[in-house]
From TrEMBL:
<keyword id="KW-0732">Signal</keyword>
<keyword id="KW-0256">Endoplasmic reticulum</keyword>
<dbReference type="GO" id="GO:0005548">
    <property type="term" value="F:phospholipid transporter activity"/>
</dbReference>
<dbReference type="InterPro" id="IPR011030">
    <property type="entry name" value="Lipovitellin_superhlx_dom"/>
</dbReference>
<dbReference type="Pfam" id="PF01347">
    <property type="entry name" value="Vitellogenin_N"/>
</dbReference>
<feature type="signal peptide">
    <location>
        <begin position="1"/>
        <end position="37"/>
    </location>
</feature>
<dbReference type="InterPro" id="IPR045811">
    <property type="entry name" value="MTP_lip-bd"/>
</dbReference>
<dbReference type="InterPro" id="IPR039988">
    <property type="entry name" value="MTTP"/>
</dbReference>
<dbReference type="GO" id="GO:0042157">
    <property type="term" value="P:lipoprotein metabolic process"/>
</dbReference>
<dbReference type="InterPro" id="IPR015816">
    <property type="entry name" value="Vitellinogen_b-sht_N"/>
</dbReference>
<dbReference type="GO" id="GO:0016323">
    <property type="term" value="C:basolateral plasma membrane"/>
</dbReference>
<dbReference type="Pfam" id="PF19444">
    <property type="entry name" value="MTP_lip_bd"/>
</dbReference>
<dbReference type="InterPro" id="IPR015819">
    <property type="entry name" value="Lipid_transp_b-sht_shell"/>
</dbReference>
<dbReference type="GO" id="GO:0005794">
    <property type="term" value="C:Golgi apparatus"/>
</dbReference>
<dbReference type="GO" id="GO:0005783">
    <property type="term" value="C:endoplasmic reticulum"/>
</dbReference>
<dbReference type="GO" id="GO:0008289">
    <property type="term" value="F:lipid binding"/>
</dbReference>
<dbReference type="InterPro" id="IPR001747">
    <property type="entry name" value="Vitellogenin_N"/>
</dbReference>
Length: 885
């Protein structure tokens, strides 16, 4: 690096001479600037050490160290001839030596190790020349060593490239001591870890310390890295790897060989290839062992058959997903043609596994088995496979194209038709979100939107069911591009599809809601009985989320409280929603109280609204929140949603959403007429990982309802939805500055068992409904480094089976009382870490295991004061006595 040139302006004294003190100051400045800008020099010999350690939460590491000697000589044009000699492997697990490392015989002695050349220009490495037969692992290590030769004597920031990637480098220079920190390192095409739900991320720190002698000779270099895999959701899920490379000066005398590159090759009988800072090979790729599908099912038959909804089932599922990419067509054909393991619950879980990790071959084999285009088709099998595809965190284009073709015609089975329609936009949106750099994203997204619009236009004018299916599917493609289409549909269909339109608008990120969208929400909310009450509640939620601090809009929102003809349930929902916002917005509470006082509504008669509708959220675990909306019509649940939210850095992501709906049931408990002319119906709507599944219809029409009532069909706990769901599956190749590539992976899966029970007595005018939501969860995180001579890794597993029970009790005989109870049973969390250290080609293999168990006691959640009053009323009637339960 050339010396910095600093321009100084001196002011002459009255005699025209420069003062002595000024001359002295100028000389000191000149010396400081010259020293700071001088070329960094290297000695002739350095001791070399490089270590890699793996840590779990217990902070007791495993790992290895390489030691050796680096000899240098000067060549022409600023090049250095380097030779890495006397390499030796030491392992960490032994405590026999003072620093915890013990030397071990390894294959490193067998690797081709030749001299190499580092081409420097102004303390920047331009090229590295390596022998054409150099071992790839040693080639990477040597390029990592060359990175240490990039040293700038300045206090400034630069963009540099080394084996960590292209980094922003900050230099701090204090004379003979230089600190170098690297941030934002990235390789072109190298992806970041993108956890959909659990906030898994890699936190990286890279520092380098250089000590120079007074003559600018490099005396000592230490480069440290730390990479931590951690969850923003749960602090216990945390593992890390650290690396350190160190050079210490042994001999300051360096040979000056006045030779160019061609002469070096001739003298050393070696042929060099030119290299940049790029890896010769991805040495850390680890293949999962291959297993046949029939063998996997046989080995896990008990878990598959009996343990749905448990962490054991989720753990088995993750193992199956790892193996699925190695399943062959022959494997699948052998399994599907066998009768031994063809029980329905086994086949459905096999389809979950294959759909979570399909290949073109296995996808085609499954589609052939399902015969999905036939009229006489096993709908449950088709549903399970299509659900797995729609929830797959890595959707693939060949499957999306296949489903576009499948969805061109309307399947004769109504349930399967709805599943296909919902799957296509879900996979399109997921693909565009997962692959933001794909140049064809806009075309694919538009194709998905056109798929829904074209089929919607083909529906007959009076075919409301057809229109509803395609309109409902817009919730699975919540891209801002759909806004204009949804607003246009409002003008076409008006109130007929207003619930579906508002639901789709609500799912789009609020930052994209335009004035036109919010104006529509305001229109629907304030329109009294013109629009469906569910649409009005959705609109209210949208306004409360975005316009709560706008005084004019707030006054409009509150205006419904002044009108006696407005639904008491909407008023009740509004007041409870506002109460939930008071905690974070004290000013809002003052504004609402002022409005109530000014409009003479600040009294018991006005605020005792007597509605049952409610909304609330409760924390049920660290980083987990339960939120619910219950809309009541004439004392009967019209629409209810329970969301399981995961909180990451203040942001909530909905992992699971359970919705219940009913229409036309008011006549069973009240003389009031139902607000709509819709047929008698009830069902359940599920949304998993922001993907809506087709509705599960409990009954449709009075005949089906009465058949259920008198037959007691649902009087025992009955599974409504069971599935294995892949929540996360991400693997990242992390370049290390020392010249290795670490593989960091994270997987999570759920085994879901949603069951329900419904008891209704028309004679006693009582009803009980139980929704039992149980999900076995399994998490796996791993950091591994696999070299030809040594392997080290650290892994964590976390298993839990959280449950939530929602019980509603209704007495519609002597007055109306409804009590909601939300309970969480005891929860056990098992956390295990494994650390492995293995010298390849030897008997040395160490595996350390650590187990932690966390117990969380069960609890019941307080909902709101109105619900407490209803529960107390039923308790006084002996409703909860053991003999009446």
């Amino acid at each position: 690096m050339p010396p910095h040139r600093t321009k100084h302006i001196y002011h002459a004294s009255s005699t025209g001479k420069i003062s002595a003190s000024m001359l002295k100051l100028s000389f000191l400045i000149f010396l400081a600037v010259t020293a700071a800008g001088g070329e960094v020099r290297f000695g002739g010999s350095y001791s070399f050490s490089q270590n890699v350690l793996m840590f779990d939460h217990g902070m007791v590491p495993v790992g290895f160290k390489l030691t050796g000697q680096l000899n240098l000589a000067n060549l022409n044009n600023g090049a250095l001839l380097a030779e890495l000699k006397d390499l030796q492997l030491l392992v960490k697990s032994s405590q026999e030596s003072q620093d915890g490392y013990t030397s071990h015989v390894s294959k490193i002695d067998q690797l081709v190790n030749k001299p190499f050349v580092i081409q420097l220009s102004q303390n920047e490495v331009k090229k590295v020349y390596l022998a054409i037969d150099e071992d790839p692992t040693l080639a990477n290590i040597k390029k990592g060593l060359a990175s240490l030769f990039q040293i700038r004597q300045t206090n400034d920031k630069f963009e540099e490239k080394d084996m960590s990637g292209v980094c922003q480098v900050d230099y701090k220079n204090t004379g003979n001591h230089i600190l170098k920190s690297k941030t934002g390192c990235h390789w072109r095409g190298n992806k970041l870890m993108k956890s959909r739900l659990w906030g898994m991320k890699i936190d990286s720190k890279r520092f380098e310390e250089i000590v120079l002698t007074k003559g600018n000779l490099v005396d000592h270099v230490v480069a440290d890295e730390e990479h931590t895999l951690l969850s923003a959701w749960n602090k216990i899920m945390r593992i890390k790897t650290t690396t350190q490379t160190e050079l210490k000066l042994k001999d300051s005398t360096i040979l000056d060989k006045k030779m160019d590159l061609s002469q070096v090759q001739k003298d050393l009988s070696v042929t060099f290839n030119e290299h940049n800072f790029e890896f010769n090979t991805n040495e850390s790729v680890q293949e999962h062992p291959k297993i046949k599908l029939t063998s996997f099912v046989k080995n896990n038959k008990r878990t598959i058959t009996n343990d749905i909804g448990t962490s054991e089932s989720a753990q088995m599922f993750l193992q199956g997903v790892k193996a699925a990419s190695k399943f062959t067509v022959a494997d699948l054909n052998a399994y599907f043609s066998s009768k031994k393991y063809k029980k329905k619950e086994i086949v459905e879980q096999v389809l979950d596994i294959i759909g979570s990790k399909p290949t073109p071959e296995t996808h085609n084999a499954v589609m052939k088995f399902l015969e999905i285009e036939n009229e006489d088709v096993e709908v449950d099998y088709c549903d399970r496979y299509l659900w797995a595809l729609s929830l797959n965190p890595h959707p693939q284009l060949f499957i999306i194209n296949d489903l576009f073709e499948l969805g061109e015609s309307r399947h004769s089975n109504a349930k399967l038709w709805q599943t296909i329609v919902l799957t296509v936009p879900a996979m399109v949106y997921s693909y565009t979100q997962k692959n933001p750099d794909d140049a064809e994203n806009d075309k694919l997204l538009q194709r998905g939107i056109d798929f829904l619009i074209n089929h919607l236009n083909r529906c007959e004018d009076e075919d409301f069911d057809c229109q509803k299916v395609y309109m409902r599917a817009f919730v699975n493609i919540p891209d801002p591009k759909t806004l204009s289409y949804l607003l246009q549909f409002k003008k076409i269909f008006n109130k007929r599809l207003i619930v579906e339109i508002m639901s789709a608008l609500q799912k789009i990120d609020a930052k994209h809601w335009t004035k036109e969208v919010l104006d529509l929400a305001e229109e629907v909310y304030l329109a009294n009985s013109t629009y469906d009450s569910t649409a009005r509640i959705i609109s209210l939620d949208m306004l409360l989320k975005t316009k709560i601090n706008d005084n004019a809009t707030l006054m409009k929102i509150l205006s419904v409280l002044k009108h006696n003809d407005v639904s008491k349930e909407l008023k009740q929902y509004l007041m409870i929603s506002l109460e939930g916002l008071y905690e974070k917005n004290e000013g809002l509470k003052k504004k609402v109280n002022t409005f109530l006082r000014d409009n003479r509504r600040n009294n018991y008669d006005s605020q005792a609204l007597s509605g049952f509708s409610t909304t609330f959220h409760r924390t049920f675990m660290d980083g987990g929140r339960l939120s619910t909306v219950q809309e009541i019509s004439n004392s009967i649940l019209k629409s209810g949603v329970v969301n399981v939210d995961i909180l990451n850095e203040g942001q909530a992501s909905t992992a699971f959403s359970l919705g219940l709906y009913s229409k036309g049931l008011s006549s069973f408990v009240s003389s009031a007429e139902d607000e709509s002319d819709d047929a008698l119906t009830a069902g359940m709507q599920l949304r998993v990982m922001n993907v809506s599944l087709r509705p599960f219809v409990f009954f449709d029409g009075n005949g089906e309802l009465m058949s259920h009532v008198f037959a007691g069909t649902a009087s025992t706990l009955t599974p409504a939805y069971q599935a294995l769901v892949l929540l996360d599956d991400d693997t990242v190749a992390l370049p290390l500055g020392i010249g290795h590539i670490a593989q960091i992976s994270f997987m999570s899966g759920a085994s879901v068992d949603l069951s329900g029970q419904n008891k209704l007595s028309l004679w006693y005018k009582t009803g009980n409904t139980l929704v039992q939501n149980k999900a076995g969860l399994a998490f796996e995180g791993k950091i591994s480094l696999n070299l030809p001579f040594v392997k080290t890794e650290v892994e964590f597993n976390l298993f839990a089976t959280p449950e939530l029970h929602l019980l509603s009790s209704l007495n519609f005989g002597d007055g109306i009382a409804m009590c909601l109870e939300l309970d969480q049973p005891d929860l056990t969390v098992r956390y295990t870490t494994y650390k492995v250290e293995q010298v390849m080609g030897s008997k040395h293999k160490v595996k350390k295991t650590s187990n932690t168990t966390i117990q969380a006691p069960g609890r019941s959640f307080a909902l709101n004061s109105m619900n407490n009053a209803m529960c107390n009323a039923l308790a006084k009637q002996g409703w909860f006595d053991e003999e009446n339960s």
